[in-house]
């Protein structure tokens, strides 16, 4: 089954062995080796894979056994039905979680430079709601140490959290980055509509539906790919691996705002 491993790695998913049969398993990716943005579901003679940072749709791998077109169509149909069922379950779960949340301080926000910022907290998790248009589709859950995950089966392609001040469109990957960008734009007295996209691949998808948005990119291969492939105006830290939140914590709000203004 080495060809499945090769197939997954061609799509940036760092897999070294065949996962257990019949369930989705998460793996690190080349662009985010410290996260688990890759997913593989092995079904014996075929498998489904998705790199959530770069791929909006699931890819199908098939083994050595030839499959007729009708079989492939049937597999795709069943996968789509299961995906839609997963979407519906995730919406129900996210709705329950948000109704159960309290507005509280959270260790992750303190760590990211926002000791007085309250968020939606459920048990010990910071909950970041995600919507497609006006419709809730799921949420990102962040634990006190900063580990992040989505609800099982939720729709992430096209999902965002919008911080709307009725101004220019700005796109970022992460929640803390969006909060830091808001601080800088407030310091510059610039109105904004900040789109928190949760991944570089999703940022690219959302950008295509906006009129000349400004990209505040993470300095990693996936982040750089967004503004270069779309030829959009952007800000990028000079430090490899740094996002705007990291940058602002290093230089302060005033200096981060000043340097951002040079690219606006």
What key phrases describe this protein's structure?
single chain, about 260 residues, alpha+beta, five-stranded mixed beta sheet, about 35% helix
- Give the ordered list of helices and strands: HEEEEHEHEEEEEEHEHEHEHH
Query: Mean of residue pLDDT?
Result: 91
**Could you say which overall geometry the principal axes of the C-alpha atoms support?**
globular
Helicity, in percent?
25-40%
pLDDT < 50 runs, ≥5 residues? none
User: Rounded to an integer, what's the Rg over CA atoms?
Assistant: 19 Å
CATH architecture of the domain at 160-264: 3-Layer(aba) Sandwich
Summed up, the helix count is: 8
How many strand elements?
14
Q: Structural class from helices and strands?
A: alpha+beta
| Strand line-up in the sheet with most strands | 5-6-7-8-9
| Distance between the first and last residues' Cα | 50 Å
Biggest sheet record: 5 strands, antiparallel
Q: What do we call the CATH topology of the domain at 160-264?
A: Dna Topoisomerase Vi A Subunit, Chain: A, domain 2
Q: Which CATH class of the domain at 160-264 is shown?
A: Alpha Beta
- Work out the strand percent: 15-25%
Give an account of the 3D structure.
The chain has helices at residues 2-10, 69-100, 107-111, 175-187, 200-207, 221-230, 244-251, 253-261, and strands spanning 24-27, 38-42, 46-51, 59-62, 102-104, 119-122, 125-132, 135-142, 148-150, 161-164, 168-172, 192-196, 214-216, 234-235. It has 264 residues and is α+β, with helices and mostly antiparallel strands. Among the domains are: 2-67, no CATH class; 160-264, Dna Topoisomerase Vi A Subunit, Chain: A, domain 2. The strands form three sheets. A five-stranded antiparallel β-sheet has the order 5-6-7-8-9, covered by helices on one side. A five-stranded mixed β-sheet has the order 10-12-11-13-14, sandwiched between helices. Strands 1-2-3-4 form a four-stranded antiparallel β-sheet, with helices on one face. Helix 4 crosses helix 7. The longest helix is centred in the first third of the chain and has 32 residues, at 69-100. The mean pLDDT is 91.
């Amino acid at each position: 089954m080495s060809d499945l491993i090769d197939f997954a790695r061609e799509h940036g998913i760092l897999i070294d062995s065949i996962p257990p049969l019949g369930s989705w398993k998460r793996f690190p990716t080349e662009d985010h080796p410290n996260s688990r943005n890759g997913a593989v579901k092995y079904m014996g003679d075929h498998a489904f894979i998705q790199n959530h940072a770069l791929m909006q749709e699931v890819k199908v791998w098939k083994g050595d056994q030839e499959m007729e077109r009708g079989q492939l169509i049937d597999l795709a149909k069943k996968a789509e039905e299961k995906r839609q069922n997963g979407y519906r379950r995730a919406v129900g779960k996210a709705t329950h979680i948000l109704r159960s949340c309290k507005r509280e301080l959270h260790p992750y926000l303190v760590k990211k430079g926002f000791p007085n910022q309250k968020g939606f907290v459920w048990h010990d998790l910071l909950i970041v709601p995600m919507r497609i248009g006006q419709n809730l589709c799921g949420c990102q859950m962040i634990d006190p140490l900063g580990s992040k995950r989505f609800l099982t089966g939720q729709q992430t392609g096209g999902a965002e959290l919008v911080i709307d001040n009725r101004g220019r469109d700005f796109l970022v990957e992460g929640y803390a980055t969006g909060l830091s960008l808001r601080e800088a734009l407030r310091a510059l007295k610039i109105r904004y509509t900040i789109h928190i996209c949760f991944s570089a691949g999703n940022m690219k998808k959302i950008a295509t539906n906006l009129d000349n948005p400004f990209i505040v990119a993470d300095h990693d291969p996936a982040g750089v790919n967004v503004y270069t492939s779309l030829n959009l105006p952007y800000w990028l830290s000079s430090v490899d691996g740094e996002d705007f939140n990291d940058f602002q914590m290093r230089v302060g709000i005033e200096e981060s705002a000043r340097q951002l203004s040079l690219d606006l």
